[in-house]
């Protein structure tokens, strides 16, 4: 994946700083009411449509895709295109030339968006992130097209697939614990704690990028020599019985805010305040508005993403 996800400081920090302001708690809280409207609208459409419905396509993916499109200034009408390309990026077992072809198509699409913005003499830098980067970085010569495209690519890809997987997989986990789903519907103030616990319990990005030590380093009494790699298994940390009581149980009242589902250190997820608000609104609204929600197929028939870097479900057939 291009851009700062796989960079070291100082370049990483300089690039990340260009977009941190868009993901402060204050900025994303200001979006909460709009996100709530989107979720209500999607649930209205699902309830008005045929049963069973696929919760992934009806709710879980469109919510974060809509929001990241607002922020970046990407037309939502193109969602089928960019979701398809994103899927290839994270799927295991895709031939390199196929994956690279898909990445190139998504890159070209974003280059065209950047160029289109740059051609607009009245471009408003406050309109969206791409417009701001064009005005403040590209036109001032501080960044080239590739740099702007790279940030847009990272945001678009990181900003919807992860949250979409969490929304669907988290719903499934709640449906497997119906008393907790009901509790959330009865008391939406449980939503923030429920989101943290679901993030911990599911740890959908279960193997963040390997780290390579630049110099001899001791972590937890273990010497890691310069040049050696570390594979951070966050799902294991999030189920550490030395840290959590009964870690293999889901307990939305646990208050597990110290989990590692968003990573740790300088690459810790930039979009986590946004993901939190999206997921809080999502689970609480679904549990309140569709209390009879249930799986429409036996659990064994749910297609899990065992073939992808980010865990989730390919589809979640539900009825109510
Ligand atoms: C539930 C949803 C999400 C999960 C579980 C998640 C998880 C993660 C994790 C584990 C990392 C660290 C990767 C590493 O260290 O190798 C990360 C980085 C990142 N995430 Fe998220 N993410 C989520 C949603 C989002 C959203 C909505 C955005 C919005 C744009 C986003 C943008 C990013 C970016 C830009 C980085 C790279 C940060 C850096 O390298 O400094 N993520 N995410």
Question: What does the model show?
Answer:
52% of the residues lie in helices and 5% in strands. The chain is mainly alpha-helical. It has a single domain, classed as Cytochrome P450 (Cytochrome p450, Orthogonal Bundle), CATH 1.10.630. The strands form three sheets. Strands 1-7-6 form a three-stranded antiparallel beta sheet. Strands 2-5 form a two-stranded antiparallel ribbon. Strand 3 and strand 4 (222-224) form a beta hairpin. Helix 7 (96-118) packs across helix 8. The protein is globular. The two termini are 39 Å apart. The site of protoporphyrin IX containing FE has 23 residues, from helix 9 and helix 13.
What coarse outline follows from CA principal-axis ratios? globular
Number of domains: 1
CATH topology: Cytochrome p450
Q: Report the top-level CATH class.
A: Mainly Alpha
Topology of helices and strands:
Elements: H1 11-20, H2 25-29, H3 32-48, E1 53-54, H4 55-60, H5 62-72, H6 79-90, H7 96-118, H8 129-138, H9 145-175, H10 178-186, H11 191-202, E2 211-212, E3 217-219, E4 222-224, E5 229-230, H12 234-237, H13 272-289, E6 294-295, E7 317-319
Helix pairs in contact: 3-5, 3-13, 5-9, 6-7, 6-9, 7-8, 7-9, 8-9, 9-11, 9-13, 10-13, 11-13
């Amino acid at each position: 994946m291009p851009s700062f996800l796989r960079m070291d400081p100082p370049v990483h920090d300089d690039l990340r700083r260009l977009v941190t302001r868009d993901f402060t708690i204050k900025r994303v809280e200001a979006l909460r009411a709009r996100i709530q409207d989107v979720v209500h609208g999607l649930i209205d459409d699902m309830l008005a449509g045929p049963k069973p419905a696929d919760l992934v396509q009806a709710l879980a993916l469109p919510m974060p895709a809509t929001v990241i499109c607002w922020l970046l200034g990407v037309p939502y009408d193109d969602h089928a295109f960019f979701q398809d390309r994103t899927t290839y990026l994270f799927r295991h077992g895709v031939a390199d030339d196929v994956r690279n072809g898909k990445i190139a198509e998504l890159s070209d699409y974003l280059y065209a968006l950047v160029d289109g913005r740059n051609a607009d003499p009245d471009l408003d830098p406050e309109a969206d992130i791409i417009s701001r980067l064009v005005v403040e970085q590209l036109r001032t010569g501080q960044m080239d097209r590739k740099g702007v495209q790279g940030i847009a690519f990272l945001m678009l890809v990181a900003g919807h697939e992860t949250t979409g997987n969490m929304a669907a997989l988290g719903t499934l986990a709640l449906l497997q614990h119906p008393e907790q789903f009901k509790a959330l519907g009865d008391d939406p103030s449980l939503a923030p704690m429920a989101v943290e616990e679901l993030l911990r319990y599911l740890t959908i990005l279960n193997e963040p990028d390997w780290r390579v030590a630049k110099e001899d380093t001791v972590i937890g009494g273990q010497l890691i020599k310069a040049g050696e790699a570390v594979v951070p298994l966050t799902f294991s940390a999030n189920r550490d019985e030395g840290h959590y009581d009964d870690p293999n149980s889901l307990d939305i009242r646990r208050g597990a805010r110290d989990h590692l589902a968003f990573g740790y250190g300088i690459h810790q997820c930039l979009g986590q305040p946004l993901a939190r608000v999206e997921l809080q609104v999502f689970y609480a609204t679904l549990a309140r508005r569709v209390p009879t929600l249930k799986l429409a197929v036996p659990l064994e028939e749910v297609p899990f993403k065992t073939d992808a870097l980010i865990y989730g479900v390919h589809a979640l057939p539900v009825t109510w």
